[in-house]
Specification:
The chain is an alpha/beta fold. About 40% of the residues lie in helices and about 15% in strands. It has one domain (about 5-180): Rossmann fold. The radius of gyration is 15 Å and the shape is globular. Residues about 175-184 have low confidence and may be disordered. Bound molecules: magnesium ion. The site of magnesium ion has 7 residues, from loops.
Length: about 180
């Protein structure tokens, strides 16, 4: 299904190097807004900085891929010391192509992480790479985003009811009970 991610989880920090190694992932493409930080937050939180550093130390290559403007993306990327691609126009795949090239990873060893179905997940599926859908950090009230979230709702319900897509299921100590109810 073109709008289904490969996996879902609550937040990016659920993704650890152990999981990524088991999934044969060496490259991580990360959305910024509402995935790593709320859209109005200029700097990544300490948990995100720690998480990015720990993955980098374990040999995972990370790049930011955002539809946002250069000034937002560049500054954010500098603070966590990773490469970046701005104005990527997801779900168009040109930016994804550029990002994968920049980190020199093969598409089959790369996974995209984002909070939106119609941009992040759709782009990953069009480009034929795996994806992880995370919960949006903020309750963004802009009319356009609210409309998108409204359209996402029934799709998300289907996604969350499929336990096979639950990333945390792959963790050895998991008894994760993530369900559609958590979302509402
Ligand atoms: Mg986003």
């Amino acid at each position: 299904m073109i709008l289904f991610p490969t996996y879902f989880t609550h937040k990016v920090t659920d993704i650890d190097a152990f999981l990524l190694k088991n999934l044969n992932v060496t490259g991580l493409i990360l959305d910024i807004d509402d995935t790593l930080a709320a859209p109005k937050t200029q700097c990544p939180g300490n948990d995100i900085i720690k998480w990015v550093n720990s993955l980098k130390n374990q040999g995972i290559k990370i790049i930011l891929l955002s539809n946002n403007f250069k000034y937002r993306v560049e500054k954010f990327a500098e603070l966590i010391e990773v490469p970046w691609v701005s104005m990527s126009f997801k779900p168009f795949t040109k930016g994804l192509h550029k990002a994968i090239k920049k980190i020199s990873c093969s598409p089959k060893n790369t996974i995209l992480v984002g909070d939106q179905i119609f941009t992040d997940v759709f782009a990953a599926n069009l480009f034929n790479i795996r994806s992880i859908l995370v919960d949006p950090i903020s309750k963004n009230k802009s009319p356009f985003l609210s409309f998108k979230r409204f359209l996402e709702k029934p799709i998300k319900k289907k996604i969350y009811s499929n336990s096979k897509l639950n990333l945390n299921r792959l963790k050895p100590d998991s008894n994760s009970k993530y369900s559609a109810e958590d979302e509402n």
